[in-house]
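lol ok so funny story. i was supposed to be doing the assay writeup but got distracted and ended up predicting the structure for this chain instead. priorities right. anyway since i did it might as well share w the group, maybe its usefull for someone
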Amino acid sequence: MQYPSKLIEDAVTEISRLPGIGKKTALRLALHLLKEEESTTGSLSEALINLRQKTKYCKMCHVISDSEDCTCQSIRKDGSIICVVEDTPDVIAIQNTSQFYGYFHVLGGIISPIEGIGPNELHIDSLIDRVKNSDGEIKEVILALSTTMEGDTTCFYIAKKLKPFNVKITTIARGIPIGGELEYTDEITLGRSIVQRLRYDLEGD
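and the output, tada:
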């Protein structure tokens, strides 16, 4: 693709690094920003820099936050249920269903030997500690992970880790298509899956 200037080319190259954005879309966005007021582009740049430099993660549930102190505690929720998800987009997706009123726990990924991601790279130990130190307050852990082989492997690992504790382990109902990504599931299907969750059974135990 021919560009009228090196500045445009550099902008297109960087914008096209974003997921789902090709060179043509990146060029259209770059030209649009070029036509906007300089203050608009400056505000966008500042917001992106702040996003990268100032974003924190809750030390307890690992959800993206403005501070490391858990803001979940300030919101009235059902403290007996924890919903375990892969990442923050899944938290947003489930919250948008208005069908879940408990707390979340973000793993920060799923177990994937191919990508070199093992249990120690995820926030699994802190989940176990939350259950262990809850003095029986936590009654149920919902494993709301993507229905992929890696997701199922992660569910099985967590279920084995939680087995010694007196806690009910459930998974979201399989209304979510096998191999589907949770954050792209429509809200009605996702909400129904939360409401009709199933007990997680360890085969052979």
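The chain is about 40% helix and 15% strand. The chain has a mean pLDDT of 87.
back to the writeup now i swear
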